[in-house]
Write a structure and sequence with these properties.
By secondary structure, the protein is α/β, with parallel strands linked by helices. Helix content is about 40%, strand content about 15%. About 45% of the residues are buried.
C-alpha cells in the first residue's frame, strides 16, 4: 500500500513543503530504503522509527518499505520527518486509516519509546502550512506555544506517536493550542534593566537618546569601567516595542536556530547580542555548508554590541559593511543562495588605546604613539563612516557615584524616542521601514534642508575635519533626528552643532 503525508523541511529560516511517500510491498527479506536527498540525521530516522513503532504497541512491517521525501532536489537535514514517516508506515501497513492526511501536516522527532521530541523552526513551518491552505499542523507539545502564534491554523500538540495516531484515526480528540497576544506581552515584554541603574553619564545618555530616536549606529570610546557596557545593555529598553510583524520576523530566526527559551512563544523584547571578539566571519554574518543565521541576523530588530571593537579580526569587521547598508545578508552555497534579515542597530565600544587610559586624568597611559596608531588602525575608515555617532564616555566622578539622586531612567528617554519616531512615521508614511538613520540621498535632500547659516557651519566643519561624503550625510541625518527630538520642523544651528560634535572624534583619534 502507498501512504502520503505532508510535512516541512527547514531551509535557512524558511520552511519548504515536503511530501513523505511511504510504499510497502511484499519482499523475501524486510528492507527499508530512504530516498530524497536525506542527510545523516534523516537517514538515521529509519532506526528510530522502527523502534518507536514497536515500543508504542504497533507492528513493524516485515516487508520492503520505500520512503521518498519529495521534492528530491531539496536537502533534508533535520530529524523533524520522524513523526510523519512513522505515521505513514502505519497507514501504508494498514494499521491506521484517516481522512485527515491531506488537511493536516506533521513534524516531530521520535524517541525510541515513541515520545515526540521538539524540533527547530516550527514557527516557520506553521506560517508555511497556513500559506499552503492546511487546516492544521501536528507539532511536538514543547513547540506548541511557539507555533500557536500563527493565526488561521490549528496547532495540535502531541506528546507521543500514539497520540498522533489517535488524533488521525479520530479516537483521540486534541484541542488546538490557544494563543493570547495580550497575555504574551504581559509575560514576555519585560526588561530586567533600566538606565536608572547607570550613575552619571548624562551626556552619553543624551547620545543614546539621539541614536535610539533616529536608529543611528553609535561608537562609545572610554577607559575601562566607565559604563560603556551598561549603557549598551540598556539601549533596547528605550526603543519602541516590537510590532507584531517585527516580533514574528525575529522569532522566526530564533526558532530556526533553536534559541527560543523554554515555554517562550514569541520574542517580545528586542534582542541584544554581544559576540566575543574571537568570533569568525561565519559566526558573525552566517554561514555553514547549509547556511545558518549569524549574530547580525540574531540581532534583527535589536542591538548588536561589539565590545572591545579593535580586538575583533579586521577582516571579520569588514564583512559588516554591506549588511549595515542593506539590512540583509546573502550567503551563496552550491545548494543555493539564502538571504537573512539583518536590520539592526550597531553599538560598539572600545578603549582609547591598548592600555585603556589615554586621556585619563587619574591614571597614566603607558602606550607609545606607534602602539596607539596600530591599535586604532584596526578599524577601517569605511566602517567608521557607517557608524553615525561617536562619543567619549569619561570616568564618573565619585560625587555622582555616591549621590542618591536618581539619574535619567529608561521611561523618560523612551518617551522622547517614541515621540520622535512618531514624527518620522508620519514623515515616511509611504515607506514604513525608513527612519532618519536609514534615509537615502534623495530623502536627505528633501527632509534635511539647511538655511544659509547652518549650511555655512556644515561646510566649515567638513573642511576642517576632513569628513567624507558619507559622513556629511550622517551629520544631516543626525541633525534631522535632533530636530525631531526638539519638535522642530527646521534644522537649527544648535541641532547641527550637536550633530557635528558626534563626529568630532574622527579628527582626534583617526586624523592620521
Amino acid at each position: 500500500m502507498l501512504a502520503k503525508l505532508q510535512t516541512y523541511s527547514l531551509f535557512g529560516i524558511d520552511a519548504r513543503p515536503v511530501e513523505a511517500e511511504i510504499d510497502i510491498s511484499p519482499a523475501a527479506l524486510p528492507k527499508t530504503i530512504l530516498v530524497g536527498l536525506a542527510e545523516a540525521a534523516v537517514r538515521e530516522c529509519v532506526h528510530r522509527i522502527e523502534r518507536a513503532i514497536v515500543n508504542s504497541g504497533y507492528t513493524r512491517p516485515i516487508d520492503r518499505i520505500v520512503i521518498n521525501l519529495s521534492p528530491a532536489d531539496l536537502p533534508k537535514e533535520a530529524p523533524s520527518f520522524d513523526l510523519p514517516v512513522a505515521i505513514g508506515v502505519l497507514a501504508a501497513s494498514g494499521q491506521l486509516q484517516s481522512e485527515l492526511f491531506p488537511a493536516y501536516a506533521a513534524v516531530g522527532e521520535l524517541a525510541l519509546d515513541g515520545t515526540v521530541r521538539p524540533v527547530k523552526g516550527t514557527l516557520s513551518m506553521a506560517l508555511q502550512a497556513r500559506q499552503d491552505g492546511r487546516r492544521g499542523l501536528l507539532v511536538p507539545a514543547e513547540n506548541a506555544r511557539e507555533a500557536a502564534v500563527v493565526e488561521g491554523i490549528e496547532i495540535i500538540p502531541v506528546g507521543s506517536l500514539a497520540e498522533a495516531v489517535g488524533f488521525f484515526s479520530g479516537e483521540l480528540e486534541i484541542d488546538p493550542v490557544p494563543f493570547s497576544w495580550d497575555e504574551a506581552v504581559r509575560e514576555l515584554a519585560v526588561y530586567p534593566v533600566d538606565y536608572a541603574d547607570v550613575k552619571g553619564q548624562e551626556m552619553a545618555k543624551r547620545a543614546i537618546t539621539v541614536a535610539a530616536a533616529g536608529r543611528h549606529h553609535i561608537l562609545m570610546i572610554g577607559a575601562p569601567g566607565t559604563g560603556k557596557t551598561l549603557l549598551a545593555q540598556r539601549l533596547a529598553t528605550v526603543l519602541p516595542g516590537l510590532s507584531a510583524e517585527e516580533s514574528l520576523e525575529t522569532t522566526r530566526i530564533y526558532s530556526a536556530v533553536g534559541r527560543l527559551a523554554e515555554r517562550q512563544s514569541l520574542m517580545l523584547t528586542r534582542p541584544f547580542r554581544s559576540p566575543h571578539h574571537t568570533i569568525s566571519e561565519a559566526g558573525l554574518v552566517g554561514g555553514g555548508s547549509t547556511p545558518a543565521p549569524g549574530e547580525i541576523s540574531l540581532a534583527h530588530h535589536g542591538i548588536l554590541f561589539l565590545d572591545e571593537l579593535p580586538e575583533f579580526n579586521r577582516r571579520t569587521l569588514e564583512v559588516l559593511r554591506q549588511p549595515l547598508e542593506e539590512h540583509r545578508v546573502t550567503i551563496s552555497r552550491a545548494i543555493g543562495s539564502l538571504t537573512f534579515p539583518a536590520n539592526l542597530m550597531l553599538v560598539a565600544a572600545m578603549n582609547p588605546c591598548p592600555c585603556g587610559f589615554r586621556g585619563d586624568t587619574a591614571r597614566q597611559c603607558n602606550c607609545t604613539p606607534n602602539q596607539i596608531e596600530r591599535y586604532l588602525a584596526k578599524i577601517s575608515g569605511p566602517l567608521l563612516d557607517r557608524i553615525d555617532i561617536h562619543i567619549e564616555v569619561p570616568a564618573v566622578p565619585f560625587r555622582e557615584l555616591s549621590n542618591d539622586r536618581p539619574g535619567t531612567d529608561s521611561q523618560s528617554i523612551r518617551t522622547q524616542v517614541v515621540q520622535a519616531r512618531a514624527i518620522q512615521k508620519e514623515r515616511f508614511r509611504d515607506q514604513p521601514s525608513v527612519q532618519n538613520g536609514t534615509m537615502g540621498p534623495r530623502q536627505i535632500r528633501r527632509y534635511c534642508k539647511l538655511g544659509n547659516e547652518t549650511d555655512g557651519l556644515l561646510q566649515s566643519a567638513m573642511e576642517e575635519m576632513g569628513l567624507s561624503a558619507r559622513a556629511h550625510d550622517k551629520i544631516l541625518r543626525i541633525s534631522r533626528t535632533i530636530a525631531d527630538l526638539a519638535g522642530s520642523e527646521q534644522i537649527e544651528v544648535s541641532h547641527l552643532s550637536e550633530a557635528i560634535n558626534y563626529r568630532a572624534l574622527d579628527r582626534r583619534y583617526w586624523s592620521h
